[in-house]
Amino acid sequence: GDQLTTTNENGRSGTSDPYVKFKIGGKEVFRSKTIHKNLNPVWEEKACILIDHTREPLYIKVFDYDFGFQDDFIGSAFMDLTSLELNRPTDITLSLKDPHYPDHDLGSILLSVLLAPKEGQREVTMLRRKSWKRSSKFQPQSLRLSDMHRKSQLWRGIVSITLIEGCELKPMDANGLSDPYVKFRLGHQKYKSKIVPKTLNPQWREQFDFHLYEERGGIIDITVWDKDAGKRDDFIGRCQIDLSVLSREQTHKLELQLEEGEGWLVLLVTLTASAAVSISDLSVNSLEDQKEREEILKRYSTMRMFHNMKDVGFLQVKVIRAEALMAADVTGKSDPFCVVELNNDRLLTHTVYKNLNPEWNKVFTFNIKDIHSVLEVTVYDEDRDRSADFLGKVAIPLLSIQNGEQKAYVLKNKQLTGPTKGVIYLEIDVIFNAVKASIRTLMPKEQKYIEEENRLSKQLLLRNFIRMKRCVMVLINAAYYVNSCFDWDSPQRSLAAFVLFLFVVWNFELYMIPLAFLLLLAWNYFLILSGKDNTQHDTVVEDMLEDEEEEDDRDDKDSERKGFMNKLYAIQEVCVSVQNVLDEVASFGERIKNTFNWTVPFLSWLAIVALCMFTVILYFIPLRYIVLVWGISKFTKKLRSPYAIDNNEILDFLSRVPSDVQVVHYQELKQYPSHSPNKRKRNNPG
């Protein structure tokens, strides 16, 4: 047992910071709090653990907590549940062992256990008390078994922290910069952010969830470090979040000044109660109370349209239940909980354990800052050993919500492109002021701090390319249609277009531009009302998304067999198409620039002559007459010269101007007589 005295990170001999994990079937079912600097800790904690059968033993592991480092293993033991009698409290002492050193005496742990039947023929193991002691010269402390001091370890809430950014941090490296990362600690729970290299103003945009065990809150310790390869990381600063002063069910934006250092951190913190409460018991269920409802309606009435412009509206979401969820655990069950997000506000329900048809019956309220926001409701499976497993998601635009209607939403996959298993029942109410919402629409959107990082995907690249191509094809088809009028393919259509062109140009006024868009909107609205709306484009996008989903599934299955080069070949076809389009766009811009840069003096002089002529013509002749002459010339060109090739003079001119790549190709190299080309290449440092 000598290693117990040297396990903590600072090397103080004779002490440890022990805590205990309990596992059944490889899944963690309970974790005790940490007792600091004690080899004879007394926990006096109580937890209820649901078990399906007693054949699976209870695995108990004791660790020494080390902040900032991996916790050290102290010892473990198994408890055979089949040896317990029903409804009889039993005190059990288990010797701790290390499987690698079975002869070492590592101490013992004391438990008070009650096995009791529960409804549905399931059994409950009640861990009434846990106490671990060293079997050495140290004597155990007195065991305080009073029921008054027993405290449930079931977590009472969730603390969601979004680490947004750091500002003006202290430079720790020789280059005047740092490679900062952040550590968070709440009790025995700890998280570490990613490292952002070479910056004093890092952008993290990461989100962490802590379980809150204390009703009154707690203190989250935050430290900022500079990553140094090959040596100990440098300390940049520290700060704390006192959760007891933050209101529940609300997202707080905090700017925390770093102590013992420079700069500050920007975070979003949300505290969510996790107790299982019914809708009627929830104090924030504002719309059930008629007086509260009238107060909210009054707050967003037309009479108060210019009061607090940022407060656009009020959203109430009732998360009622879910049905037929996906089984995420090996037992064929899940431990589902629900996350409700509106922009950067993120609230959670409690977890319903071992249930594929959970009932949450929880109400959330949000202040709406932008009526065009999308409500996202995601169902996860809680897993204490690792991050939560995704079960399904729905995204609901606020403007599409029908107030007061309990509606079943089919859960979708992570990409929201197709269904997954399960249905969630929600009842949503939206109250907003239309004037405030309209004004807010003309202001910048609120930036979402947590967004999924984009990954390289052949299907995603192809989809975006096809979307862009479809948009461009609309313009190209419109140009083809106009050209067909100029070509007199259909004499009746060309004649009608010619007469319309003369009439519009002769009578044109600026107000006709917004009027044309107004007529287009009215025409499409009429098509929708008459049921003649063409929704073919929606099915095209849906088909693309379904293909992408199937391709992603195939990629997931084949990912182990595919090498890096195979993936490159798979996206080569799309990359070539994108590469060609980018080349065309870049070349067009570079040719315009090189015209004005006198790259080819002959073309620049030609441009000067043409621009002088256009300037004189526009000065002396009204624009209306110029457009009329151009239009008449275009319409009559095919009549005058049936075999003339259609062209655009400006594009023809630009095609003669070299792009930057062509300028390099045409550039002459200086001759070095004393060296061969190969030697010159080696000797030339540039």
Automatic annotation (TrEMBL):
The chain crosses the membrane at residues 495-523, 602-630. PROSITE patterns: C2 (PS50004). InterPro entries: C2_dom (IPR000008), C2_domain_sf (IPR035892), MCTP_C (IPR013583). Pfam families: C2, PRT_C. GO terms for biological process: regulation of neurotransmitter secretion. It is found in: Cytoplasmic vesicle, Secretory vesicle, Synaptic vesicle membrane; Endoplasmic reticulum membrane; Recycling endosome. It is a multi-pass membrane protein. It comes from the Eukaryota. Residues 1-94, 139-256, 290-411 form the C2 domain. Its main location: membrane. Coiled coil: none annotated. GO terms for molecular function: calcium ion binding. GO terms for cellular component: endoplasmic reticulum membrane; recycling endosome; synaptic vesicle membrane. Keywords: Calcium, Cytoplasmic vesicle, Endoplasmic reticulum, Endosome, Membrane, Metal-binding, Repeat, Synapse, Transmembrane, Transmembrane helix. PANTHER family: C2 DOMAIN-CONTAINING PROTEIN, DYSFERLIN-RELATED. Belongs to the MCTP family. This is Multiple C2 and transmembrane domain-containing protein 1.
